[in-house]
Amino acid sequence: MKALISWFGSWSMLAKHFLFLSLGTLVLLGGLGYINLREAEGLFRKQVVSDAQVIIDRTNLYMNAYLDNVQNILLLISTREDLLNVGMEKEASDVLRSYANMNRTLYKSLYLVGVDGHVISNSQTTFDIIGNPEIPKLLEKAKQTYGIFITEPYQSPISGKTVAFVLPIQSSSTESLKGIAVVEIDLVQLTNMIAQFMNTKNQTFAIITNKKNVVHSFDVGLPLSSYRLLPYHTSVYPPELDEGFVDQVSDLPVGASEINGPEGDLVAVKSGMNNLGWYFIAFYENSFFYQNIASLYRNFSTAGVFWIFLVLASTYMISRYITLPVRTLVAKMDRVRDMEVLHTIHATGNDEIGRLARSYNAMMERIHHLMQETKEAERRKKHFELKMLQSQIAPHFLYNTLACISSLAKQHKIYEVRETIKTLVGLLSFSFDKSTEFVTLADELEGLRMYAYIQKVRYGDKFTMEIDAAPATLSKTILKLTLQPLVENAIFHGLVPLKREGIIRIRAKCAKDKLIITIRDNGLGMSSEVLNSVFEERHKAPSKHRFTGIGIMNVHERIGLHFGTEYGLSIFSLPEIGTLIRIELPAMEHEHTEKNK
After folding, report:
1. Mean pLDDT of the 547-570 span
2. Mean pLDDT, the chain, integer
3. Which of 85, 151, 186, 463 could form an SS bridge with 108, CB 3.0 to 4.6 Å?
4. Neighbouring residues of 509: CB distance < 8 A, sequence distance ≥ 6
5. Phi/psi at 216 (nearest 5 deg)?
């Protein structure tokens, strides 16, 4: 979690601002759109269900009126019990045919059935040929029933799928059952009349009895797509509704419910049972409720696109006028490590960012000026320190040298006296030359020879010095008085205490653009503790044996100051073995150094 927070914290202001606005927009528009669309869908669903309930109620009224009409026909037929008498067959058939012709859209077949099983139909010829196996069953049931009754749907050879309305006819003289009047209704016509306003692309209906039998008929005149919402078995003809679906629908409560259909969820609106004992159920495809609110989707989509455009425009303005200048300022501040180059920001605006940029430029100019003054003061300080050290010729060195000259004079060694004085004058002239701090390696070695000559006059054959410098190194640049303090340290601390003759070997060569000089002696050497203290000698008082106040640490710091910290001294020493000092300098020609200076 901490890593995630740290990673998010490293994002730029622009990225954070864009993420914040994007998420805010998503939550705001998404939540608002979801709430409004759900409310709109709910209102539309409520309205559709309410309209469906009204249609269902009106359909039930129509069905009840249908029942009343059938009952009236049956009652009219029952008043003509004489039609069941022998010899009245033709008149009975004509009466039934007249009733059937008057209500052709309602009734499919009409029958008068005597108690002996003799049947008279409005289509007598067709009946005599095809027959109807359901008629005897209806007669047997009528013998056990008083009053009109309605059958469950069945398949009639003459009427097709139908429902029969049956009324027993009592004899007026004997008050016994004389026969029955039967009306088989036209379920296809009934289904078509209801389908005109209930069967559309997104809605359909079903009529189911209280015994879970399907009443409505399959109309071959309608395309199969009209029946796609309900699970019809098309492997049989006519297609039939799935029994499991019928059971599920029959168990639904009165009102609106949701049920699974073959092509998605359906909303089922179920009516109460009408006078026929039937339930009317209207089915609506669930997606239908969203189709009519597509305009709301488009409105929210348009608002979302417009808002995203505003977010992008706002982000661009922030990037252009705030983030980019701030990032530029940060990039410039990251480069402040190099104060040799003045890093400024181009500022044109008069807002807070512009004022910040101008303040930064003014601050950088002041810092740069102060840094230049500090560096110049440091450089002058180092220069004056060197001049002071160069001018502080140790009194003991002059005293000892003059004492040696006096001793030589008493011995009448005129040549040695002359050479010693000449060497001393040359050494002092070389040391006090204030024209430059840089000399060639050849000049530095010449000054070193003069110093070594004076020390040999004093100590005799206590040591010898060997110099092996490659010719290419003699013209290279070196700081004045770099080698003399190191050789001086080797003589007084390494060789003089010996009871034998010591050797100092000086080597110089060029390797990989570097001038490498080694000073090696076979003197007393140093332990690791003493070696570690060598670089602290700048804090101690100079030795009385020194020619100047320049020590090993001074030499190392001077080299780092003028050439860089990658150059300087490396010292290796072992007790009773000797000491090796390695000096690394840039291999620069003396003329080039003078021009740079």
Report:
1. 81
2. 80
3. 186
4. 470, 473, 515, 516
5. -65, 155
d(CA 452, CA 528): 28
Token pair belonging to 14: 């622009």
Q: Can you give the pLDDT at residue 293?
A: 66
Beta strands in 512-567 (DSSP E): 514-521
Amino acid, res. 48:
V
Contact 130, 157 (CB under 8 A): yes
> In 10 A of CB 164, how many CB atoms?
27
Asked if 495 and 505 touch (Cβ cutoff 8 Å), the reply is no
Res. 528: pLDDT tops 50: yes
Q: Do 268 and 281 meet the contact criterion of CB atoms below 8 Å apart?
A: yes
- Summarised one tens digit per residue, pLDDT across range 178-208 is 899 999 988 877 777 777 767 677 778 888 8
> What are residue 240's DSSP bridge partners?
233
What letter represents residue 46's amino acid? K
Q: Residue 373: what are its φ and ψ, rounded to 5°? A: -65, -40
Q: How far apart are CA 9 and CA 3, in angstroms?
A: 10
**How many CB atoms are closer than 10 A to CB 559?**
21
Alpha-carbon gap, residue 121 to 89, rounded angstroms = 9
List helix spans (H) across 79-186: 89-102, 124-130, 134-142
The residue with tokens 């002996």 is 116
At which residue do the structure tokens 């495809």 appear? Answer: 285
Q: How far apart are CA 241 and CA 215, in angstroms?
A: 11
CA distance 91 to 384: 152
Instruction: Write out pLDDT tens, residues 130-163.
Output: 989 999 999 999 888 878 888 988 888 888 888 8
Q: Write the DSSP string, 180-210.
A: EEEEEE-HHHHHHHHHHHH-SSSEEEEEEET
Q: Report yes or no: 285 and 266 within 8 Å, Cβ to Cβ.
A: yes
Q: Determine the Cα–Cα distance for residues 344 and 358; give it in Å rounded to an integer.
A: 9
**SS3 state at 575:** coil
